């Protein structure tokens, strides 16, 4: 799992990742393939999106109550979306991702 997380976190050359983690490029390739295929096989169970109007409204209500985002229905982890900093409480809208690429 560590091999796959390392690769997905910063995809680069499998050989270099293998050297960093002390395994072969083939091990990196096979590990990533197996882990990703296992995740995809479970995706229908793990990934849920609202499908009815009632589910959409409930998702929006939850996001508004918890995070003060009135039109959100969910998020995709590690996706950074640029937003305009509001005049009030603007310091609460800082993207803390330190990489130049918009994936953390």
UniProtKB/TrEMBL annotation:
Domain of life: Eukaryota
Organism field: Acanthoscelides obtectus
Protein name: Nuclease HARBI1
């Amino acid at each position: 799992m560590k091999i796959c997380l390392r690769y997905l976190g910063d995809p680069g050359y499998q050989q270099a990742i293998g050297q960093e983690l002390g395994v072969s490029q083939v091990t990196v390739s096979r590990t990533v393939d197996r882990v990703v295929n296992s995740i995809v096989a479970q995706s229908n169970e793990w990934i849920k999106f609202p499908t009815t109007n009632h589910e959409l409204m409930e998702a929006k209500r939850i996001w508004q109550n918890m995070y003060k985002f009135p039109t959100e229905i969910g998020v995709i982890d590690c996706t950074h979306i640029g937003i305009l900093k509001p005049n009030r409480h603007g310091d609460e809208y800082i993207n803390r991702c330190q990489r130049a690429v918009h994936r953390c």
